[in-house]
TrEMBL record:
Protein name: Transcription initiation factor TFIID subunit 2
Boundaries of every Transcription initiation factor TFIID subunit 2 Ig-like domain copy: 548-748
Any GO BP: transcription initiation at RNA polymerase II promoter
Record bears the keyword Transcription: yes
Domain Peptidase M1 membrane alanine aminopeptidase: 333-449
GO CC term, one of those recorded: transcription factor TFIID complex
Length: 828
């Protein structure tokens, strides 16, 4: 034993438990099966033995997190939860186990807990809690005992499936919870919560039935007692539907009675009437809830999540209404993932909202713990977007991160990327393409600002655990890298993207092709992508996976009248050429804003070499799609092959050369016709008459008084000469959003304004707004004003335009931006 202890110390495994097997225990050698999915091993196999380990944990500082009332917060809800990470070292803090991420086994848990929080604290022998709950301190801390007395009984929520909940056989003040986890799981993926929680089971049919009409209507859940609790709006809708169905039933019965009275002697007609009535009732049952759709609520007709043993959500009693409203999207999330990628890997799914956890999201097998700060009522819209993004990502981690794990620490990026890709595809389905593309563009900007002299996302020298900001950076960049890979794979066909690769990986895990550990590595993933799409992924991986940095493109153009071509000059750099990042990252978000600046970590300095895709190494290569919106109003797409740091491209001009004359009578007539069409569209979409009339001046009609009131300045009024010399309306780079890089295009301000006004792509509108901020003028402020006032435009674009108006508040412009902002506020 002494020799083994010394050996363990030399291997830096202090604290490992060594168990000596006595000679009385007979070990029988087992024969290995002839057919196995794992690699054959020379290590012999023996029969299993059962080891009982009795242990206790005294004042744990990690692993188990206790939250108890104290003098600063005497009404705090007492709870206990596990500190979980998919890294070795956490599970051993509270559970004797083989703490290896690749060691999987099934689990059985028995939890014996006090029945009520007040009884637990009275018997805890904790000096702090004894001082708060003792009778002598009731005059000083009366709220503690009162708060604990009003709490419900303790509930244990654990990884696995609840098999039984029974009272303790000898102590009536305790109860027992039994959980089984039948899916082999590593110890670091286990977790549990003990707290006085209220439980709600999401019942899918009732849930869909009550989510009709408005996006924030009430929801229907079935509790543990089998009763259904419904929000006020949902209950009213449900009763209304029942009333409609009763009326239809009465009408059917009246029709049957009329048929029977008229043809009472005709048995055939009686039978036909009965069959017709029965068919009507059957059709009514089959068609499901009225007015159901797949729009704002993200509801779906096929419910594959019904195959899950149960979906349960938990919170403290005071958050019950917010819990019901917040978790209404979970069936849609599970159904989307199961339908698009593969079945849910566990038998049940639990979601627990805790007060003040050590981090906002704690993911364990079949159990997710979230901060109660993510809960929101139905009338809070802003938090809905952020909460659903976080919840969708947490659910995706059940597939990649807990069920399928990384082969090595350098493969962590892949699991984070696949989970993030799944979540982003759900948000695209749930919130719409505009929201998805806008968030995607903002994320790419953040990565370009942060990826300065950082190591690659797949780094063989990656140490565990990761620093907080570096982990958050990888979680932000990896889904974007997979998005770019997905776009390049689908160049060969829309059916050749990651939506075919991910199901193949999950099928390999179920069939055992990934081995007993079900671990995925980067090499296997890239091989699968190559087999599915036929794309040579080596150059892509060298640039985006094994390399660092992002490209920085500088474009300029000029029109060649002799050749009738647009000459485009391209110059490429890398973000690694910069000295330091201007943005720090404290959390990962698909659209969060940048924080304060942070210096480059010195440990990353050795990555400033040719391993990066740009800078002093090789250039980033690939195809970029550009769009030239020519004078006849037709957009033409062209593909540029980028293979060098500098190159001059010649793009054919398709329209016969002529200058765009915006000061002619014909142009003014076209503008008036366009403004009339805008007003017609406004009336069609339901704008009020007063609102439509107020917007007429903003869209360029002939109300000169309104123009003067709003200080409207059209393009060409200040610089007519440069405006008349343009040969096409605007040029746009990377229209397919296939490059994660910084794009700088030397283009006049009136072209950016034309792109903002006429291009319907939200990314194009956002890029135009960002570039108009570099050219402050009265006409630019007018263009931004029109965007803010146009209720048909995407709301995030209008928000960006309102923020950009602040850059137009300059003394040389007589603070036109501030004036427009004030006018907007007064009008609203």
């Amino acid at each position: 034993l002494k020799r083994l202890v010394q050996l363990a110390k030399r291997e830096s495994d202090d604290g490992e438990l060594v168990i000596l097997i006595p000679d009385s225990v007979v070990l029988t050698k087992l024969e290995q099966p002839a057919v196995t999915t794992d690699t054959p091993s020379d290590t012999p196999l023996y029969n299993s033995i059962v080891i009982h380990i009795e242990f206790f944990i005294h004042k744990p500082s990690a692993g188990l997190m206790f939250q108890l009332p104290d003098a600063t917060n005497p009404t705090r809800t007492p709870l206990l939860y596990t500190q979980c990470d998919i890294i070795p070292g956490n599970a051993r803090l509270w559970l004797p186990c083989v703490d290896d991420i690749h060691e999987r086994c099934t689990w059985e848990f028995m939890f014996i807990v006090p029945r009520h929080p007040l009884a637990a604290l009275l018997s805890s022998h904790n000096p702090e809690t004894d001082r708060l709950t003792s009778p002598s301190s009731s005059a000083t801390y009366p709220e503690t005992s009162a708060a604990l007395s009003s709490l419900p009984e303790f509930v244990v929520v654990s990884s696995g499936e609840l098999m039984e909940q029974t009272p303790h056989p000898s102590d009536p003040m305790k109860k027992i919870f039994l959980y089984n986890l039948h899916v082999p799981t590593p110890p670091c993926a286990l977790g549990f919560v003990v707290a006085p929680l209220t439980a709600v089971k999401i019942d899918a049919p009732c849930f869909l039935e009550t989510n009709l009409g408005k996006a924030h209507s009430g929801n229907s859940f079935a509790g543990e007692d089998g009763q259904t609790t419904t929000g006020a709006n949902g209950e009213g809708q449900r009763l209304a539907n029942e009333g409609d169905e009763d009326e239809e039933d009465d009408e059917d019965e009246d029709e049957d009675e009329d048929d029977e009275e008229e043809d009472g002697k005709d048995s055939k007609r009686k039978k036909a009437a009965s069959d017709r009535s029965q068919s009507k009732r059957q059709a009514k049952q089959n068609r499901g809830p009225k007015n159901s759709n797949t729009g704002g609520n993200g509801l779906i007709s096929s419910n594959r999540h019904d195959k899950i043993g149960g979906i349960y959500v938990f919170s403290t009693p005071e958050w019950r209404e917010e819990l019901i409203n917040t978790c209404r999207c979970i069936p849609s999330i599970l159904d989307f993932y199961s339908r698009e990628y593969g079945s849910y890997p566990f038998t049940t799914y639990k979601l627990v909202f805790l007060d003040e956890p050590y981090r906002h999201v704690i993911s364990t097998a079949s159990l997710t713990m979230l901060s109660s700060h993510l809960l929101h009522p139905a009338d809070i819209i802003d938090q809905t977007y952020e909460t659903r993004r976080i919840v969708s990502l947490a659910v995706a981690e059940q597939w990649f991160g807990l069920y399928i794990i990384p082969k090595a620490w350098s493969d962590l990026w892949l699991l984070w990327g696949l989970a993030g890709h799944m979540a982003s595809q759900f948000l695209k389905h749930h919130l719409g393409t505009n929201e998805y593309l806008f968030r995607l563009r903002k994320d790419m900007e953040r990565v370009c600002e942060l990826d300065v002299n950082r190591p690659p996302i797949c780094n063989a020298d990656l140490a565990s655990p990761l620093a907080g900001d570096h982990q958050a950076f990888i979680q932000l960049k990896s889904p974007l890298v997979l998005y770019i890979l997905d776009k390049r794979m689908m160049k060969g066909g829309l059916s050749l993207g990651l939506h075919r690769v991910i199901p193949k990986i999950l099928l390999s895990a179920m069939s055992g092709d990934l081995g007993r550990s079900m671990a995925l590595n980067t090499t296997l993933f890239l091989k699968t992508c190559r087999k599915v799409s036929g794309l040579d992924v080596k150059s892509f991986a060298d640039q985006w996976v094994y390399g660092s940095g992002c490209p920085v493109f500088h474009f300029s153009f000029q029109f060649n009248r002799k050749k009738l071509v647009v000459e485009i000059n391209m110059r490429q750099q890398s973000t690694n050429a910069s000295q330091a990042s201007t943005v720090s990252l404290t959390n990962y978000s698909l659209h969060s804003t940048a924080g304060k600046s942070a210096p480059t970590t010195p440990a990353f300095a050795h990555h400033r070499s040719s391993t990066s895709g740009g800078g002093s190494g090789l250039p980033f290569t690939g195809q970029m799609t550009i769009l030239v919106h020519e004078a006849n109003g037709t957009p033409y797409e062209h593909v540029l092959d980028i293979e060098e740091f500098r190159k001059k491209f010649e793009v054919q001009f398709n329209t016969k050369y002529k200058r765009i004359r915006r000061s002619t009578k014909r142009f003014q007539m076209r503008q008036a016709a366009a403004a009339a069409e805008e007003a017609n569209v406004s009336s069609m979409i339901g704008l009020d008459t007063d609102e439509a009339e107020d917007q007429q001046a903003l869209f360029g009609l002939d109300d000169e008084e309104e123009k003067r009131t709003w200080r409207i300045v059209e393009w060409g009024e200040e610089d007519e000469e440069s405006l008349a010399s343009s040969t096409f309306e605007w040029l746009r780079l990377d229209t397919d959003l296939e490059w994660m890089g910084q794009m700088y295009l030397d283009q006049p301000d009136f072209m950016w304004a034309a792109q903002l006004q006429k291009d319907r792509d939200v990314v194009a509108q956002y890029e135009a707004i960002q570039n108009l901020k570099r050219f402050p003028s009265n006409a630019a402020s007018t263009s931004l004003l029109r965007v803010v006032m146009d209720v048909r435009m995407f709301y995030r674009v209008r928000m960006e335009a309102a923020a950009a108006l602040a850059t137009m508040a300059l003394p040389q412009l007589e603070y036109i931006g501030l004036y427009h902002l004030r006018r907007i506020y007064e009008r609203r």
